[in-house]
Design a protein that fits this description.
Layout (H helix, E strand, L loop, with lengths): L31 H25 E5 L14 E5 L13 E5 L6 E8 L4 E5 L2 E4 L2 E2 L13 E4 L4 E5 L9 H4 L2 E2 L3 E10 L5 E2 L9
Length: 203
């Protein structure tokens, strides 16, 4: 016969050992000078980034229809301020510049570079005797004339040839008046697009 012994559960430990937990360190309040320094450093960094961005790009609003149908009245665009620091403007580039005879900033397309002979006759633009293929214009120009572009100057026209104040009206554009090369239309969102430059007569 198997015998089993009844066992009583051990009595509860009435005096459990409690380990002391080290007290958490008290947070030290930062000195006011350190807080002010951090704010100043953040502001300076923000200003520096803003300065860098604004020195590299510019933001402009198109006011007028002289670049229709390529660029429309009321669109906002970004230009590169450093595009021509190493390279020269090329035929077909769309550029922003200071008007040679006023304080206005204008946007037009480069048609002639220094040394080029420009001839406009019967609605056709010729550069050095070669007729340009210009699918970007609103309509062929109705005026006729010819020009030879001097050194350090450029010949620019609006894509809306018959409704544009440009080189055919006020003459050549000095190179040091050029502000930058148009890059992107960013507003309104429905018009977002890369600005379409047109590479003609390359080489």
């Amino acid at each position: 016969m198997s015998v089993v012994e009844r066992t009583n559960p051990p009595a509860p430990d009435l005096y459990p050992v409690v380990e002391q937990v080290p007290a958490e360190p008290v947070a030290q309040r930062r000195p006011t000078s350190a807080f002010v320094r951090e704010i100043l450093e953040t502001l300076l960094l923000t200003f520096f980034i803003f300065w860098i961005v604004n020195s590299l790009v510019g933001r402009y609003r198109i006011d007028g229809n002289s670049m229709n149908p390529t660029l429309l009245n009321g669109e906002y665009l970004i230009i590169s301020n450093f595009a021509y620091q190493l390279d020269e403007p090329e035929r077909g580039d769309i550029i922003v510049f200071r008007h040679p005879r006023s304080e206005l900033n204008l946007i037009k397309r480069v048609i002639g570079i220094p040394g080029d002979t420009i001839e406009i006759q019967d609605g056709i633009v010729r550069v050095n005797g070669v007729a340009l293929d210009e699918p970007y214009i609103q309509a062929p120009p109705t005026y006729n004339s010819s020009w030879v572009v001097p050194e350090g100057q450029f010949f620019v026209l609006g894509d809306n040839r018959n409704n544009s104040s440009d080189s055919h009206a006020w003459g050549f554009l000095p190179e040091d008046h050029i502000l930058g090369k148009a890059l992107v239309v960013y507003w309104p969102p429905s018009d977002w697009s890369k600005v379409p430059h047109y590479d003609h007569l390359s080489g």
